[in-house]
């Protein structure tokens, strides 16, 4: 197929590497000329340019820009596309994107590959990034089923496990397992950095921090833009999960204040039981 990719960063670049390996012709557009050049040198694309005109012969276009630019990019792209071209995106939040793009292009399949690293930009692109990872499609009632099938087959050919759900269900689910953990981990780091008033103890804490702290602080100490994007674009679902989290934290505090050891034991037995259900697909 002739496949277009707009935004040759971590996700767009990784898609290009794998799609070319599968024998597709890949056309790439990015904002900066240097990125287009590096993408060509690294074998991410067959052709690249900063001009969206390059997408005129694409049968499928993946929009892989930062989330705020996905809808504006589609708006600029539409005049160049063949009438039967399929647009799909990789944005980490789906509701606002579906609402903005569906009126612009009926042949639009919203998508979210659940894979990534802490790095960004074309240099971060990796082969096989999507192998064994979930790839979620969130079509709505008006999304053509043939277009969904095409994107599902492409996602499967990358080695991904394809899931389909409503955009709202996607945003609510990722709020629990991705966006809430980022906020909890960030507030943990904030509490540790601001809460201790004795500088000697604070320094000692930093020296004693080990693997447990490394694991629980990892997602809160990552790219600030990603956390901001989650708060801005998934605000209602994130707030909903944060309110529930605040209640569970308050319940734990009350149990400790009341020295309710059986209550705490019961809570911790429950959390030990549910964790494997959430991480069973991870190696
Ligand atoms: P990224 O590495 O920063 O890549 C985004 C690329 O978009 C940049 O390299 C930039 O290219 C390009 N770009 C910026 N403005 C543009 C424009 N106006 N026109 C064309 N290209 C433009 O970010 P990413 O992590 O790949 O994220 C991209 C998308 O994937 C986001 O929507 C995000 O929600 C989604 N996503 C991310 C992850 C993750 O873990 N990172 C996982 C799943 C989905 P230049 O170098 O040319 O400026």
- Enumerate the strands of the largest sheet in spatial order, edge to edge or round the barrel: 3-2-1-4-5-6
Overall helicity? 40-55%
Bound molecules: NADP nicotinamide-adenine-dinucleotide phosphate
Point out poorly predicted stretches: none
Oligomer: single chain
Largest sheet: 6 strands, parallel
Radius of gyration: 22 Å
In one word, what is the shape? elongated
H/E series? EHEHEEHEHEEEHEHHHHHH
Look at the structure and give the mean pLDDT: 96
Q: Assess the beta-strand content as a share of residues.
A: 5-15%
Number of helices: 11
- The secondary structure category is alpha/beta
Number of strands: 9
- Distance between the first and last residues' Cα: 33 Å
Describe the overall structure.
By secondary structure, this protein is of the alpha/beta class. The protein has eleven helices and nine strands. It has helices at 10-21, 33-41, 70-77, 95-101, 145-157, 167-195, 199-208, 211-217, 224-233, 235-257, 261-279; strands spanning 2-6, 25-29, 47-49, 60-63, 86-89, 108-109, 111-113, 134-137, 161-164. The strands form two sheets. It has a six-stranded parallel beta sheet with strand order 3-2-1-4-5-6, with helices on both faces. Strands 7-8-9 form a three-stranded mixed beta sheet, with helices on one face. Strand 8 (134-137), helix 5 and strand 9 form a beta-alpha-beta unit. The longest helix has 29 residues, at 167-195. NADP nicotinamide-adenine-dinucleotide phosphate binds at residues 6-12, 29-32, 35, 64-67, 69, 73, 90-92, 112-113, 116, 120-122, 124. Residues 6-12, 29-32, 35, 64-67, 69, 73, 90-92, 112-113, 116, 120-122, 124 line the site of NADP nicotinamide-adenine-dinucleotide phosphate.
